[in-house]
Amino acid sequence: MDMASEVLQPEGDDMARTSWNMRRIIAMYQETFTVIEKCLKPVVVAVQGDCVGGVDLITACDIRLCTQDAWFQVKEVDIGLAADIGTLQRLPKVIGSRSLVNELALTVRKMYADEAKESGLVRYGYKPRISGQGGDDGWSSGDGRGDSSPVAVQGTKVNLIYSRDHSVAEGLNYMATWNMSMLQTEDVMKSAVASVEKKSPKTITFSRL
Amino acid sequence: MDMASEVLQPEGDDMARTSWNMRRIIAMYQETFTVIEKCLKPVVVAVQGDCVGGVDLITACDIRLCTQDAWFQVKEVDIGLAADIGTLQRLPKVIGSRSLVNELALTVRKMYADEAKESGLVRYGYKPRISGQGGDDGWSSGDGRGDSSPVAVQGTKVNLIYSRDHSVAEGLNYMATWNMSMLQTEDVMKSAVASVEKKSPKTITFSRL
Amino acid sequence: MDMASEVLQPEGDDMARTSWNMRRIIAMYQETFTVIEKCLKPVVVAVQGDCVGGVDLITACDIRLCTQDAWFQVKEVDIGLAADIGTLQRLPKVIGSRSLVNELALTVRKMYADEAKESGLVRYGYKPRISGQGGDDGWSSGDGRGDSSPVAVQGTKVNLIYSRDHSVAEGLNYMATWNMSMLQTEDVMKSAVASVEKKSPKTITFSRL
Amino acid sequence: MDMASEVLQPEGDDMARTSWNMRRIIAMYQETFTVIEKCLKPVVVAVQGDCVGGVDLITACDIRLCTQDAWFQVKEVDIGLAADIGTLQRLPKVIGSRSLVNELALTVRKMYADEAKESGLVRYGYKPRISGQGGDDGWSSGDGRGDSSPVAVQGTKVNLIYSRDHSVAEGLNYMATWNMSMLQTEDVMKSAVASVEKKSPKTITFSRL
Amino acid sequence: MDMASEVLQPEGDDMARTSWNMRRIIAMYQETFTVIEKCLKPVVVAVQGDCVGGVDLITACDIRLCTQDAWFQVKEVDIGLAADIGTLQRLPKVIGSRSLVNELALTVRKMYADEAKESGLVRYGYKPRISGQGGDDGWSSGDGRGDSSPVAVQGTKVNLIYSRDHSVAEGLNYMATWNMSMLQTEDVMKSAVASVEKKSPKTITFSRL
Amino acid sequence: MDMASEVLQPEGDDMARTSWNMRRIIAMYQETFTVIEKCLKPVVVAVQGDCVGGVDLITACDIRLCTQDAWFQVKEVDIGLAADIGTLQRLPKVIGSRSLVNELALTVRKMYADEAKESGLVRYGYKPRISGQGGDDGWSSGDGRGDSSPVAVQGTKVNLIYSRDHSVAEGLNYMATWNMSMLQTEDVMKSAVASVEKKSPKTITFSRL
After folding, report:
1. So where does this one cross the membrane (chains A, B, C, D, E, F) (predicted)?
2. Which residues in chain C (104-143) have CB-CB distances under 8 A to chain B?
């Protein structure tokens, strides 16, 4: 249920009403990051320096990069609260080790770029190579790809997020229902031709400096 | 719902009917990999050289090996479509980093053996040691174990797959209901005796060359 | 359903009744580890030497440490049964690589401290530094934090476990409903003040020797 | 996922893009009825005469009334499509007999007031008694109650909808987390006093003429 | 998981192996009724006289009719077993009262046509009117409709079954993804025209004699 | 998660801590009714006169009876709170019409025996016939059956409750795994023989006076 848009709320100011209002506000903040998942273009985020209070944001993105001097901290416990706008929900689904997730969230330990890369939170711990492809430097690219079919890229994002929250069987069923129409795009033919014609794909390659 | 075996489909050739048929065909292809999960013997897959279009297949297997020259690519976006026969559904549940999954699926980047091993996609990046145990070289072993109790091995596989798609509480409930009869096998006594008698277990050890 | 506390069971001794009783006993054993998740204090476990038959226990804990000589083994298949008190359910949600999980459970291979650390099962492969903070050496600390707000720490644990078993949307909804009252604690103010006053947080730092 | 608010969509006009746009439009229409569930006040709907194309709307409401001459029809199959803005999703959860739901949706049969009442779709098949309570005639009452605690009424609605879509155990867990703060309202004391003082509750009584 | 088609099973004849084989056989029997749900044409079933052991079958159908002398019984408990090929799973989702479902399954009480109709198990307790429409008497009609669009009828069935097993939000999401292509059928135009031209729809009307 | 048995709770008395304690207490009350579902014997409940505050209790039972003078009321809204120990979670799964459930919970309307019977809440609106079978009058019978196989009756109850909270496919899978051992009971043979030998089954027949 989309709590952020609940139409009414009880008037008054006792503790229950304060809680009610609090819940609505939390939901609104949560929504500010969830829209990133709803954006059909893949979203690449790059972290420079400290990322404190930003883990909510970056875990809602699709691909995470960082500079060598980046570090990450889930600091909410230190200020007396449980993180409530996405970190506890998304971080365990982004990185592999739940032991690490628990430690970060419970002990407020800082994690630096190297460990962040090893843990799978970010894929390349450093600044991406400035590629000459299309005058694009990789950081500003919205979809991670210069010239891919939007039908393919966006369908991939929608189904990756769907799979995250469902069983494999459910994900396969949804995928088949999705592609039954999406395969009927002229992009398939165009992409196939383009794929044959050019030797190297125009993939943005996030490599180390 | 097992779409592949839907009994009827609407005749005709407008776009809706084409979609309907497309969905049935996708489901049939999906099923060709899902049967690997249904095979009660653990399935070990080994990759040599390129694995393009094969990620669907290998993620449906139980254990993945590869040679040093192996590389992996999820190429569907490049030909204008979202991967629909298992990669987007199973890959995120096989490897730990969703950042990496997203990058592979959205940017068509190649991943080589070393990174594949680090990411957890394959467990040993190289050719397994040819073991002398039982004249078996590890590659051809269907269940990953020479002489284990099939009741134990197969029950383990069934419940590992069940756990993947359910909460911990659900998984525990199912496990208890499974083992309430499966523990009543004479294999437990036989295995216990064998376990005591032999010094080293006949486990296939997938080690580096 | 809490099988361990099923009120009655059918009398008699045929195979069905034996199964029934077996299921009740398995559920009781499962519960002995599940209570660790119900403990609102974070639970840190440290492994020294072999951890055979203990993977059920440690995967129910929040943070796992080990000494350099530790090794881990899921040995159930070797004695003719599928592990039924938590390993098959929790291990795949603790470490990132399902390939590794499958291999450990199906081939009974030993995993040593270094690989355990790389896999994400334990976070620091070695003995933690004896910190001078509060005369506490890190091993005995129940909540991983010296002086954090219990409202914050415990709420974090409850929601991390809830997220593990639900979709992101479900987790966010539950989190907002949780925090609508939990934010109304005086700990937030106290923690904020404390956070400003002291230079270095009293976080237990699990570092290598 | 809130499809109605997907931020972008692929440009162009082939079949896949038409489908994409179609999906967004369907989701927008669906949302126009889902907001009724998000309205924290209970919504009472009253049907007079034919309700064709309106079953989507009324099944999203909390309480359904109708006049003696009302009739209901799910007519989508007759115009070549499957109902896609709520009827197939909500009707089976509103009335008890799935046999009836299937028949209505598949055969386009009309259902008149008497059968609608028997089936549980509407609770009172006739015009409600014009009550003298507060000059309110029952039809216009937004929350079905004259002077109930909004904390109680709205919490009841939120949890009834939550229960519809979850298991009993899940619903109980959510309810406890909800009420842990909502019970701390002064409405409980006020309501208790009012409940003792007045002989007959001011409940709107929907009775037959 | 499609247990009926599990590829292998352990050889031998102890109790665990007997259980394993038993499970496979039960799954095969279950599948014989589940195919009815997979049949894209709506399936109408009519019961004459006793329906003992047939409740599994009829609850897998879409619409249930019966003659005046029909009666229904869930007799498994009387022969020492829990019904395992569909009754306990589908009956509670077909009729409204769980109290009745429990009583039928636990006490083996017979239910006659009148109560079956009231309970919602069958929609018309009697023989349907022999309609003159197309020389069809209603009993033999496979899809309950003479000339409806198959795209509409079959899409309706698929989504009704999907909704049964999912939350409303999940059902709406799937429906939108389904119809994004299915609305692009020429049947919509044809049906609309036909709907305007003919005065009375050719709906099969199941009325009492 | 079994909140009632959470091992620790934060000390102190601010609003957050009061909420925390409140949640634990609610969960304990919820558990007092949930144990009825865990009791493997079917539980029959009979209501005489008013059932106010007892709807939580009776909806956790398996079969509900009542005398002619019984009436039911969900009165929580009238005292300023949302019902939190089972009514909002179980009532919608017991009776067919969600319109009625909503009305009862939101308007505090009384429901009398006749309507309760029609709605499916109770199966027989009146006092059950005092049967001469075994000197048992039907009210005191714990399992609703004089001499049924406990393996059959209890397995039926466990699976009926499982089905309530799962999809049909999930329910079928669990059922097959349950019965793979439970069919191996000597009760099947005994019951079959008994079933043939006696003319009329010893079923308790709840009939009207």
Report:
1. none
2. 105-109, 119-120
